[in-house]
Design goal:
Helices cover about 40% and strands about 10% of the residues. It is mainly α and about 150 residues long. The chain is globular. The chain has one domain. The relative contact order is 0.15. A 3-stranded mixed sheet has the order 1-2-3, with helices on both faces. A hairpin with a 4-residue loop joins strand 1 and strand 2. The longest helix is centred in the N-terminal third of the chain and has 22 residues. The protein has 4 helices and 3 strands.
Length: about 150
């Protein structure tokens, strides 16, 4: 991907999500470049799900779980109609040529077959359940054994 494309995506994410993505965990961070990279990583996760699940980009802010205790999962989104759980791991690279590596992906996918939501830290799962309740999704509908899991 060219640097021009990266800058266009950066501008789009910033204009759409600046007021949507919670960056409170970076409030005291002195490195503004690191803050911007974290914001764009979160925005990129939201953009991927927005495109795949056909949900408004701005609605995905509360589903972002990125942080120091995220267990490698940067966004969790449950789509009730298709009964699909999206697990997103993202990484922003300013040059457009990076990749996320395989270490984090293995850590997430290795524990998926357990089907008891042990693959995500408790706070990420709690956030998923709160989001489901806020959207009036029946608690039974979030049963992991009946879902399609999409890991990005």
């Amino acid at each position: 991907m060219s640097k021009l494309h990266v800058k266009q995506i950066e501008g789009y994410l910033t204009s759409k999500l600046k007021s949507v993505i919670d960056m409170d965990d970076y409030a005291g961070h002195s490195d503004k470049g690191q803050l911007q990279k974290a914001f764009l990583t979160r925005g990129l996760a939201a953009l991927a799900v927005s495109q795949l699940a056909e949900v408004a980009l701005e609605e995905l802010g509360p589903n972002i779980t990125d942080g120091s205790k995220d267990g490698g999962i940067d966004l969790i989104y449950f789509e009730p109609k298709e009964r699909t759980l999206y697990l997103v791991q993202s990484k922003w690279h300013d040059d457009g040529h990076g990749h996320r590596g395989r270490g984090g992906q293995r850590g997430v996918t290795r524990s998926l077959p357990g089907r008891d939501m042990k693959f995500a830290p408790a706070e990420a799962v709690s956030k998923l359940r709160r989001n489901a309740e806020a959207r009036n999704v029946d608690a039974a509908a979030t049963s992991i054994d009946e879902l399609t899991i999409t890991h990005l």
